[in-house]
User: Fold these one by one.
Assistant:
Number 1:
Amino acid sequence: APSLFAATSRTSRNNYHLAQAYLEKFYPKKGEHQVGEMVARGGNSMIRKIKELQAFFGLQVTGKLDQQTMNVIKKPRCGVPDVAN
Amino acid sequence: YRLFPGEPKWKKNTLTYRISKYTSSMSSAEVDKAVEMALQAWSSAIPLNFVKVNLGEADIMISFETGDHGDSYPFDGPRGTLAHAFAPGEGLGGDTHFDNAEKWTMGMNGFNLFTVAAHEFGHALGLAHSTDPSALMYPTYKYQHPYGFHLPKDDVKGIQALYGPRKTLPGKPTMPHLPPKKPSNPDLCDSNSPFDAVTMLGKELLFFRDRIFWRRQVHLTTGIRPSTITSSFPQLMSNVDAAYEVAERGAAYFFKGPHYWVTRGFQMQGPPRTIYDFGFPRYVQRIDAAVYLKEAQKTLFFVGNEYYSYDERKRKMEKDYPKNIEEEFSGVNGQIDAAVELNGYIYFFSGPKAYKYDTEKEDVVSVVKSSSWIGC
């Protein structure tokens, strides 16, 4: 998880949770979590989703929750996922 | 643009929609208007029509919901997620929900309902989110001006990939889907640029073209001043289709696409209304020109090669119309861009020419350059 942060602070923790909820909602992956499957919280799938979001919005693809990525995550938006499942 | 997996689309060309729950932050008439305009944005690009129903099930059920509202996609309170819609299909398919915790408006404050509705109806018709930041189907909110709105190219390509283009209808042969041409430094005396509309307003004659209009005293050809339409008529912005004044009523009417505005002088009188108030058939989507005949108290509306006559006293379209323009107004050639009555003559503007038509002789008595009216 520390590798995701561009900055370390309480804000970052809040950002992390906000980003996690955002990515689960708008960048779900078909068949991602099989019932009973053990997945580390966050981990690679989160970085992969962050990269997917950054690619979708034409941001620099870093896999990190940098300022630009957080700005997009905080924008009001449509509730339909960006990747159709 | 992107489509949903399996490219779901509607298999019929007339869809019903129903607003089953309204929001408290707008009047129901405003919600109806915003929804109608948002659907119009799509129906002007594809051969799909929308019919509003007030009872029972509709293809597209529209409602304002709060939090968890039973479709496994709970809303999250102010900001964040504003609305969502389901891809074409039975049941929930096409249904569109707006988060009632948002402040919905018709303006730039809060969240503009037209903007969000137009985006969600893209989903309801089969479009997924686009990665093109200029597209309406880009996922994040960006205010869109409802009046004179044109679908961005990316969205036109996407929706026409599903439904094909709508065949153009009678009326000004403009391309409704392309943003109005923005001449970088327009030659104001370009005799090949037709006027969009001409009307009296009080003691002045107004000539409209693209984003500009000219004001002139009727009997003076000096001191004619161009200015931007938005400086005096912000709601009209540009590309007025037609205009006329009923001087004894102190009202003027300005037409753009399927809408018209009423003014007293330069003061707008309320929001735009629909041209179907006049009794036009639904296939008429825009007016080319309009002229009020003071003695007859009738207004002639020109659409393509036909014209209608509207009785201003009875407020009713006259029977036996439309009629063919060339048959009734001999000598006036080409599509009519604008018309105005002065001193008992009707002046028709068509491309570079302006025809002076004598209604008693029923003939053209002189032809001059259109641009000579603005001192060129």
Number 2:
Amino acid sequence: MNLFRLLGDMTHLLSIIVLLLKINATRSCRGVSLKTQELYAIVFVCRYLDLFTNFISLYNTVMKVIFLGSTFTIIYWMRFHKVIRVTYDRDQDTFRYQFLIIPCLLLSLILNSEFTVMEVLWTFSIYLEAVAILPQLVLLQRTNNIDNLTGNYIFLLGSYRALYILNWIYRFLTEPNYRQYLVWISGIVQTIVYIDFFYYYIRSWKNNEKLSLPA
Amino acid sequence: AEEAEAKDEL
């Protein structure tokens, strides 16, 4: 575990805490994409199947449980909480799951390091995570009135990905046999997805303006 | 074995 990895995980954790606090404090999930949250739930479930088979560390197990629990909490609130569910932008959050899930599934069946159920699902989760933010970015562009917390949530998620790239560089330089090409390429794609958002986020912050994305 | 190493990441 290096500093970049720890900071990356903490940023990821913080992003989820920001989202939980925002929804809980304002009793509103306006601007939050349920599709993205559900894609993350699929990502975590497929990737963390090894919770039952492969113990890595207490840290690893605790973080996995937190990511699963918090994501399912958000989904539960958005779907079933009697106050919060009313605030969900159902009509704007129209990105289709299958456009992301099917290509990622096909790709994971073709490009994987071992053709087993666990390994294919793990690889699928890596590919799906790279694009899971897209419904959220599309919703953000549509709602056009982004509250600070939603903007911060996405900024923190993007930062976590950037820190993971630094973690990989560090590991590549310090661990002799450390190589994971599929993860690296997906991770770089995932980070590129955020670049446009980062540009507008930083610009609005510098100019002290409310964040808005051009249509 | 290479890929298994990577599984310590979240």
